[in-house]
């Protein structure tokens, strides 16, 4: 096993737009990274190449997080490479518009199984490793401020993110004091939001700090949660004050 005492992060969804920046930032903090991707092989390879500039032992694996078997396979591969787990970040997420009266069973399963079920079983498998270790470790879930808003046309997505926020509290309570579990809920992050149904000026008009978020706003919060020792079960809304509206 090559990792010689370095801290290790297991992260889902590091082939994502924001996810890849988070993985790079965590590697930059001195961590080895094991990350998953599903369809974006080129983006995953590009991300791994950049991570390996600072953390050459890092690894990636293809994994559909809506399948428990595949999550188990990813953890089996993780354990072949690394003998400790310091940080889990659940970032894999599906996002698409689904008008309330037209939501199909397939839409629901795709969004809720990827986002909520995927996060739950990733956290469960990680916790089985983390609770056996003689040190405190951390989990960070990626949710969305929409968990606290009523967005038209995004019911399965927003319900899934709301569910992950509650899972965050459940794991924080049950896994304390061995594992600190917190969530980051981004608002709209620059060009990365995936929403094209509201003009940027309208979005900015609802943000007290008068700008969209930047990936660095999320990275700064990740770094904070990697260091803090007395916060667990919290959702940090990184939204420029959007939820104050
Ligand atoms: N970007 C924003 O403005 C914003 C705002 C609010 C919340 N967030 C949250 O922040 C996190 C990171 O966002 P992002 O910008 O990186 O999202 P993104 O660009 O949409 O990327 C989504 C990631 O999830 C992976 N994924 C999707 N379905 C999967 C499945 N069934 N199994 C495994 N992996 C799957 C994708 O893998 P492949 O591409 O390889 O298939 C990709 O790595 C997400 O949880 C998102 O909900 C983002």
UniProtKB/TrEMBL annotation:
Which top-rank group of organisms is this from?
Bacteria
GO molecular function term, any single one = oxidoreductase activity
Coiled-coil segments: none
> Which InterPro entries does this one have?
NAD(P)-bd_dom_sf (IPR036291), Sc_DH/Rdtase_CS (IPR020904), SDR_fam (IPR002347)
Query: Keyword Oxidoreductase: yes or no?
Result: yes
The leader peptide range reads: none
Which keywords does the record carry? Answer: Oxidoreductase
Asked whether the keyword Oxidoreductase is assigned, the reply is: yes
Gene3D superfamilies given in the database record = NAD(P)-binding Rossmann-like Domain (3.40.50.720)
The UniProt entry, under Pfam families, shows: adh_short_C2 (PF13561)
Q: Which family does it belong to?
A: Belongs to the short-chain dehydrogenases/reductases (SDR) family.
User: What protein am I looking at?
Assistant: Short-chain dehydrogenase
